[in-house]
Protein backbone atom coordinates (compact mmCIF):
# COMPACT_ATOMS: atom_id res chain seq x y z
CA UNK A 1 0.00 0.00 0.00
CA UNK A 2 2.84 2.37 0.87
CA UNK A 3 4.52 1.97 -2.52
CA UNK A 4 1.24 2.87 -4.26
CA UNK A 5 1.24 6.22 -2.48
CA UNK A 6 4.93 6.95 -3.10
CA UNK A 7 4.57 8.01 -6.75
CA UNK A 8 1.64 10.40 -6.22
CA UNK A 9 3.39 11.82 -3.14
CA UNK A 10 6.59 12.49 -5.08
CA UNK A 11 4.64 14.03 -7.95
CA UNK A 12 2.76 16.25 -5.51
CA UNK A 13 6.01 17.41 -3.87
CA UNK A 14 7.52 18.24 -7.25
CA UNK A 15 4.48 20.26 -8.30
CA UNK A 16 4.00 22.07 -4.98
CA UNK A 17 7.64 22.99 -4.33
CA UNK A 18 8.45 26.21 -6.16
CA UNK A 19 11.45 25.90 -8.41
CA UNK A 20 13.23 28.91 -9.76
CA UNK A 21 16.33 28.35 -11.82
CA UNK A 22 18.43 31.40 -12.48
CA UNK A 23 21.74 31.27 -14.31
CA UNK A 24 24.23 34.03 -14.55
CA UNK A 25 24.04 36.85 -17.06
CA UNK A 26 24.26 34.78 -20.24
CA UNK A 27 24.52 37.35 -22.98
CA UNK A 28 27.71 37.28 -25.02
CA UNK A 29 29.46 40.63 -24.83
CA UNK A 30 31.82 41.76 -27.63
CA UNK A 31 34.48 44.40 -27.03
CA UNK A 32 36.86 45.89 -29.62
CA UNK A 33 39.81 48.14 -28.94
CA UNK A 34 43.15 49.34 -30.30
CA UNK A 35 45.95 49.02 -27.77
CA UNK A 36 49.55 49.76 -28.69
CA UNK A 37 50.50 47.72 -31.77
CA UNK A 38 47.38 45.53 -31.56
CA UNK A 39 43.75 45.47 -32.56
CA UNK A 40 41.91 43.32 -30.03
CA UNK A 41 38.46 41.86 -30.64
CA UNK A 42 37.32 40.37 -27.36
CA UNK A 43 34.25 38.23 -26.83
CA UNK A 44 33.20 37.27 -23.28
CA UNK A 45 30.64 34.47 -23.28
CA UNK A 46 29.29 33.43 -19.85
CA UNK A 47 28.34 29.76 -19.67
CA UNK A 48 24.68 28.77 -19.71
CA UNK A 49 25.41 25.71 -17.60
CA UNK A 50 28.03 26.60 -15.02
CA UNK A 51 27.83 29.56 -12.66
CA UNK A 52 31.07 31.53 -12.74
CA UNK A 53 32.44 30.10 -16.00
CA UNK A 54 33.21 32.58 -18.78
CA UNK A 55 34.64 31.66 -22.19
CA UNK A 56 36.86 34.34 -23.67
CA UNK A 57 37.78 34.62 -27.34
CA UNK A 58 40.41 37.21 -28.22
CA UNK A 59 41.38 37.93 -31.84
CA UNK A 60 44.77 39.66 -31.95
CA UNK A 61 45.83 41.52 -35.10
CA UNK A 62 48.56 43.96 -36.01
CA UNK A 63 47.31 47.56 -36.03
CA UNK A 64 49.47 48.52 -39.06
CA UNK A 65 48.54 45.83 -41.59
CA UNK A 66 45.69 43.95 -39.85
CA UNK A 67 47.68 40.70 -40.08
CA UNK A 68 47.19 37.92 -37.53
CA UNK A 69 49.50 37.91 -34.54
CA UNK A 70 50.09 34.20 -34.01
CA UNK A 71 53.01 34.29 -31.58
CA UNK A 72 51.46 36.31 -28.76
CA UNK A 73 51.07 35.29 -25.15
CA UNK A 74 47.60 36.27 -23.96
CA UNK A 75 46.70 36.28 -20.27
CA UNK A 76 43.27 37.01 -18.82
CA UNK A 77 43.28 38.42 -15.30
CA UNK A 78 40.32 38.64 -12.94
CA UNK A 79 40.20 40.49 -9.63
CA UNK A 80 37.22 40.28 -7.30
CA UNK A 81 36.07 43.84 -6.62
CA UNK A 82 35.23 43.22 -2.95
CA UNK A 83 37.73 40.80 -1.49
CA UNK A 84 40.62 41.31 -3.94
CA UNK A 85 40.95 37.61 -4.81
CA UNK A 86 42.96 37.42 -8.04
CA UNK A 87 43.21 34.74 -10.71
CA UNK A 88 44.40 34.32 -14.25
CA UNK A 89 44.09 32.06 -17.29
CA UNK A 90 46.16 31.53 -20.43
CA UNK A 91 44.40 32.07 -23.73
CA UNK A 92 45.74 29.72 -26.40
CA UNK A 93 45.48 29.67 -30.18
CA UNK A 94 45.65 26.80 -32.66
CA UNK A 95 47.23 26.43 -36.12
CA UNK A 96 43.89 26.64 -37.93
CA UNK A 97 43.06 30.05 -36.45
CA UNK A 98 46.39 31.62 -35.43
CA UNK A 99 44.95 35.01 -34.46
CA UNK A 100 42.14 33.57 -32.34
CA UNK A 101 43.03 32.93 -28.70
CA UNK A 102 40.52 31.14 -26.43
CA UNK A 103 40.35 30.56 -22.69
CA UNK A 104 37.83 29.29 -20.17
CA UNK A 105 37.92 31.33 -16.98
CA UNK A 106 36.39 30.02 -13.75
CA UNK A 107 35.53 32.92 -11.44
CA UNK A 108 35.27 31.65 -7.87
CA UNK A 109 32.57 33.35 -5.85
CA UNK A 110 29.71 35.71 -6.53
CA UNK A 111 30.17 39.42 -7.05
CA UNK A 112 31.76 41.76 -9.56
CA UNK A 113 35.02 40.67 -11.16
CA UNK A 114 37.22 43.33 -12.76
CA UNK A 115 38.75 41.77 -15.86
CA UNK A 116 41.90 42.70 -17.79
CA UNK A 117 43.81 41.20 -20.69
CA UNK A 118 47.59 41.20 -21.07
CA UNK A 119 49.05 40.63 -24.56
CA UNK A 120 52.79 40.08 -25.12
CA UNK A 121 54.57 39.41 -28.42
CA UNK A 122 57.62 40.69 -30.34
CA UNK A 123 55.47 43.72 -31.25
CA UNK A 124 55.27 44.75 -27.60
CA UNK A 125 53.26 44.33 -24.43
CA UNK A 126 49.90 45.87 -23.55
CA UNK A 127 47.47 45.44 -20.69
CA UNK A 128 43.88 46.63 -21.04
CA UNK A 129 40.83 46.69 -18.84
CA UNK A 130 37.79 44.96 -20.32
CA UNK A 131 34.17 45.03 -19.12
CA UNK A 132 33.70 43.42 -15.73
CA UNK A 133 31.83 40.17 -15.13
CA UNK A 134 29.05 39.95 -12.55
CA UNK A 135 28.52 36.54 -11.00
CA UNK A 136 25.23 36.26 -9.05
CA UNK A 137 24.79 34.31 -5.85
CA UNK A 138 23.71 30.73 -6.54
CA UNK A 139 20.06 30.06 -5.85
CA UNK A 140 19.33 26.86 -4.01
CA UNK A 141 16.31 24.73 -4.78
CA UNK A 142 14.81 22.08 -2.52
CA UNK A 143 12.95 20.23 -5.27
CA UNK A 144 16.07 18.43 -6.51
CA UNK A 145 16.82 17.19 -3.01
CA UNK A 146 13.23 16.10 -2.49
CA UNK A 147 13.19 14.20 -5.77
CA UNK A 148 16.46 12.49 -4.83
CA UNK A 149 15.10 11.52 -1.41
CA UNK A 150 11.83 10.32 -2.97
CA UNK A 151 13.59 8.15 -5.55
CA UNK A 152 15.88 6.78 -2.83
CA UNK A 153 12.89 5.85 -0.64
CA UNK A 154 11.11 4.21 -3.59
CA UNK A 155 14.22 2.17 -4.48
CA UNK A 156 14.71 1.02 -0.87
CA UNK A 157 10.98 0.22 -0.60
CA UNK A 158 11.05 -1.78 -3.82
CA UNK A 159 14.13 -3.69 -2.63
CA UNK A 160 12.52 -4.50 0.73
CA UNK A 161 9.27 -5.55 -0.97
CA UNK A 162 11.12 -7.79 -3.46
CA UNK A 163 13.18 -9.37 -0.66
CA UNK A 164 10.16 -10.18 1.50
CA UNK A 165 8.16 -11.41 -1.52
CA UNK A 166 10.94 -13.79 -2.49
CA UNK A 167 11.30 -15.06 1.09
CA UNK A 168 7.53 -15.57 1.38
CA UNK A 169 7.36 -17.50 -1.89
CA UNK A 170 10.39 -19.59 -0.88
CA UNK A 171 8.71 -20.49 2.46
CA UNK A 172 5.48 -21.34 0.65
CA UNK A 173 7.44 -23.56 -1.76
CA UNK A 174 9.22 -25.28 1.16
CA UNK A 175 5.86 -25.91 2.89
CA UNK A 176 4.45 -27.44 -0.32
CA UNK A 177 7.56 -29.61 -0.80
CA UNK A 178 7.51 -30.68 2.90
CA UNK A 179 3.93 -31.91 2.73
Give structural attributes.
2 domains, single chain, eight-stranded antiparallel sheet, alpha+beta, 179 residues, Immunoglobulin-like
- Helix/strand order, N-terminal first: HEEEEEEEEH
Could you report the average pLDDT, rounded to the nearest whole number? 85
For the record, what CATH class of the largest domain applies?
A: Mainly Beta
> Strands of the biggest beta sheet: in what spatial order?
1-2-3-6-5-4-7-8
Please tell me about this protein's structure.
With 179 residues, the protein is α+β, with helices and mostly antiparallel strands. The chain has two domains: 2-20 and 140-178; 29-135, Sandwich (Immunoglobulin-like), CATH 2.60.40. The chain is 28% helix and 42% strand. It has two helices and eight strands. The protein has helices at 2-16, 143-178; strands at 29-35, 38-46, 53-62, 73-80, 86-94, 97-106, 111-121, 124-135. The protein has an eight-stranded antiparallel sheet with strand order 1-2-3-6-5-4-7-8, with no helix packed on it. A hairpin with a 2-residue loop joins strand 1 (29-35) and strand 2 (38-46). Helix 1 (2-16) packs antiparallel against helix 2. The two termini are 32 Å apart. Mean pLDDT is 85; it is low at 18-26.
Amino acid sequence: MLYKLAFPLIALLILITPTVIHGQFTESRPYKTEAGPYILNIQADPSHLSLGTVDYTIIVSNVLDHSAVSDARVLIWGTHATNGHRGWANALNNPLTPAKYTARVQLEGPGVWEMSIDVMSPLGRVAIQVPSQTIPRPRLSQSGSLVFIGVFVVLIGATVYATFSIRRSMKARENINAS
